[in-house]
Amino acid sequence: MSDKRRQLEEQGLDLVPIMNLVTILIPFLLMSAQFVNLAVIDSMLPAIVESEPVEEKPDEEKLDLKVMINDKGFTVAGADKILPEEAGENGRVVPCHEDGCPTPESYDVASLTDRLALIKDQHEDEENVVLVPDSSVSYEVIIRTMDATRDDQDDRDSDNRPRRLFPNVVLAGGVK
Amino acid sequence: MAKKKVSRRGGGTEELNITSMMDMMTIILVFLLKSYSTDDVSVAPSDDLQIPVSTSLKSPKLAVNVIVTATQIMVDGEPVLEMEEYTDESGRARSRVPASAMRGQNIPDLLERLEQKREKAEGIGQRVGDNEAGFQGEILLQAHKELPYEVIRSVMFTAGQAQFSQFRFVVIKGNG
User: Fold this and answer.
1) How many angstroms separate the CA of residue A85 from the nearest CA in chain B?
2) End-to-end CA distance of chain A, in Å?
3) I want to staple A96 with a disulfide (CB 3.0 to 4.6 A). Which of A73, B4, B56, B76 is the partner?
């Protein structure tokens, strides 16, 4: 009895079947592994958005918020009544950090978010914004602008969710 | 212990110790399980296709995949059109759709391919008799981050001509 037991102890655990299993599992998992997390930003074509029936509110002025993107920075239009009072003549222009906006990082998206948050304070129900980029503006800048107009990352509620600004984004034709 | 084993067997060949390999495999297995993903959408980032980073949290859904890299346009993995490279005023290398492949804002080759996709989806929808299985007019757009807006605009315009109206810009989920 004791001899048998000693023999069992000395044999140890046979790991080979587990090895086989793991070796098969690894290629399978490698195939379906994804190392970048993807997300999407929804956008409608302008023509389709306009053709949707819109409830007319004659008493209330439509905001029709636009953000122009060019080599000088951002220009916020459609909110003339709010911005100039707050920040003088240049309240609607958000200039770049560097002249001529050479890199996507030079666009001042943080200031743009601040300006839009001011507009959102006055128009709580408005959710639409139209982006009007120049032809030469790179795609990355457009995505950054969409981030800046969608929500305010610095202004979070008790659940740590960012404040929603204008989530319905539409890209317009732009100028040559 | 191993030595003991060997000596008892009368100096036979020593067995491979696979315990350390098992340890390694277990760690790899856990890592791969963690990055396991069942997302419908996958991207293969390369030098020609660098997807911009965004704070968006919306997860991607399956739709017609339009990929615009710095060198070509693809629809569901099949190449449609080669892009033309040029140098802009500031000396940066950029890409555009060659003028010969454009008719105004329209890209006829892309339009043809997208219309085929639409007809196919509509056919399936009719056969199944379920609107949800049919044509939804959705496009997943993966674009290189340095592309100028004029390229994105032409692609969106062409997609609009083929009655695709809902755009989803694929982005990499940032830390936001």
Assistant:
1) 31
2) 93
3) A73
Question: ipTM of the predicted structure?
Answer: 0.79
Q: Which of B61, B171, B173 to mutate to test the interface with A (most CBs of A within 10 A)?
A: B171
* Same-domain check for residues A68 and A106: yes
Mean pLDDT of chain B: 82
Residue with tokens 């390694």: B24
Indicate whether A26 and A57 sit together in one domain.
Answer: no
Residue A176 · residue A137 · CB < 8 Å: no
Query: pLDDT (tens digit, 9 = 90+) per residue, A146-165?
Result: 988 888 888 777 778 888 88
Distance CA(B102)–CA(B119), nearest Å, equals: 23
For A28, A45, A109, the CA distances from A140, given in Å and listed in that order, are 34, 19, 12
Q: Does A150 touch chain B (CB under 8 A)?
A: yes
If one counts the domains in chain A, the total is: 2
Q: Does a structural domain hold residue A54?
A: yes
User: CA-CA distance, B38 to B150, in Å (whole number)?
Assistant: 34
pLDDT at B115: 92
The verdict on residue A99 lying in a domain is yes
Q: Which domain holds residue A23?
A: 2-32
